[in-house]
Amino acid sequence: MPGGRWEVGGKTADSAVTMAFGVRAGLFDRPDAQEITAQLGAGITNAIADVLGEDVRAGATVELIASPAERTFTGGQRAQ
């Protein structure tokens, strides 16, 4: 993303890290969904900071994108 189009903490930032992961929609229906998604977000953010440095942590965004089972394929076959 070009500089000046992203803000972190209300201040324009030149760069930020965004990671998007496709997950099955059923993840969000689980009773422990909030805990699991929080752990995923924190774990991925930790990995980003480990690789790219602590200075990117505050601007790191992790997005979990839900896909319904009928739109999920594994090995060319519709997922079960």
What does this molecule look like?
With 80 residues, the protein is α+β, with helices and mostly antiparallel strands. The chain is 25% helix and 30% strand. A two-stranded antiparallel sheet has the order 1-2. Strands 3-4 form a two-stranded parallel ribbon. It has a two-stranded antiparallel sheet with strand order 5-6. Helix 1 (33-52) links the parallel strand 3 and strand 4 (61-67).
Q: Low-confidence segments, ≥5 residues, pLDDT <50?
A: none
**First-residue to last-residue Cα separation:** 36 Å
Helix count from the secondary structure assignment: 1
What's the pLDDT, averaged over the residues?
86
Tell me the fraction of residues in β-strands, as a range. Answer: 25-35%
Number of strands: 6
Helix content: 25-40%
- The main sheet orders its strands as 1-2
Q: SSE order in H/E notation?
A: EEEHEEE
Global shape: elongated
Largest sheet: 2 strands, antiparallel
Q: Calculate Rg over CA atoms.
A: 16 Å
Look at the helices and sheets and give the structural class. alpha+beta
Give structural attributes.
two-stranded antiparallel ribbon; two-stranded parallel ribbon; 1 helix; 6 strands
Write the layout of secondary structure elements.
Elements: E1 6-8, E2 11-13, E3 18-24, H1 33-52, E4 61-67, E5 73-74, E6 77-78
Short overview:
The chain is 25% helix and 30% strand. It is built from 1 helix and 6 strands, in the order E-E-E-H-E-E-E.
